[in-house]
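User: What would this chain look like folded?
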Amino acid sequence: MKRNLLLTIFIFCLCQIGLAQSLKRIGTLERKNDSIFVVENGKYYIVNKNVVTVKLKSGIDGLEKVAQKIRSNRLGYIDLVVPEGTDLEKYVSVLEYTGKFDIVEYNNIGKYCVITNDTERSNQWYLNNINAFNVWDITMGSSNTTVAILDSGTDWRHPDIGNGSDGYKNINEQVGWNYISNTNNVITNNGHGTRVAGIVGAKSNNYRGISGISGGNNSVGITMIPFCVGIDAPDGSIIDDAIIDAIDAGARVIQLSLNIAQTNAINAAIDYAIQNNVVIVCASGNNYSSTVSYPASHQNVIAVGATNKSNIRPNFSNYGTSLDVVAPGVDIFSTTLNDEYNSQDGTSFAAPQVSGVAALMLSMRPDLTGQQVRNIIEQTAQKVGGYSYVTTTGRSNGTWNQEMGYGLVNAYAAVYAVAPQISGPSTICNQATYTINNLPQGATVQWNASNTKLSLVTQSADSAVFQSDYYGNSTIYATITIGNSNF
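Assistant: Here's the prediction, encoded as structure tokens.
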């Protein structure tokens, strides 16, 4: 698979820069490695360390020798150069101390946004709560990542999952299996599995229906393999075989929206999944109980409870010591039988949101282990609902609450935490080194720049040195390749 990263930088010789930036109010900055971020609504924006924007107080006519101006506009905002070698936050403090300015604010490097055109997206209130719109700026899923849907069967003919005028599908029904009929015909008269599959991977941005969490951008998203493990109810004698078959078919995520009594055979299949770095996600149950149902309660399964629109646990959602995270589970709009859509409640429809997030993470970083995926989902969860999250014995991924687990899944934060990113100075005066963080194991990198005045001096497995004596701006590209397939 192949992924292109880019970083817009400023090339300068006289230590001056000239590229307009969008304005951001001064806020609490967050430092990670060598980069500084502004965090807004759970989304990280990298701060431009070389430009500060100010507005003079009324009655003050000029900057005098306070700072060097890049440009100004008719509304009174002035972009200033941050002197080379000067700490950004200290420089802002100096400007504020002069008393000359009404406004001193940081600038940041933004992103172009993906807004899906699916006709029923407005009914999917849950996408905003789990930060899905932001994560789609990073990835919308790779067909190289496979999610197994172990459920009541899936109507793969639904145009928002399989057949459709858009010409693509996010499901491989030929590999799936119906253990009741002993055929690969996984279409049944129970729409539960079709609803679950739609939440995970309904085709996105295809001018139809809903947006799946990992449904692609008007192109193939993740690949779903459907298994029917019981039409009216899950059959315990099938679950273990289906888990094993899903793993052998290449699944990296196994989605379970079912509860059943514990057996040694299912436990062994779950252990087999963990040995093969497969993530298992399961609904906590809808029994109004303070005990998470099995197999969600298994220590190697991500147990997902439900929340409502106010990020509160609905009474039906099982909770307790085995709960890991929560996701919206009330009025969840998705695909159903007869090419239709409607809403239902239940932890069954919270769990596939987490499966979709796991699939996005693995789309970015196929080298991640199952345990790494789980840890990051837990560590990046949102502390919502006004609950008390506390340090808990045996819970090493942050503070925890028995009704909410580690909190509400945050799609953007989880994927951002594992996404490859270029780090390095945003200006070059002669020569600078750039590095890729979170580089997948086994990946190769090819560096390039949009401006021919910027030349590549050397490169290694995860870094490169560029040099230039040109004044202007450019974009550095890093193409990451794993194998021969693209995403």
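The mean pLDDT is 88. If you want, I can go into more detail on any region.
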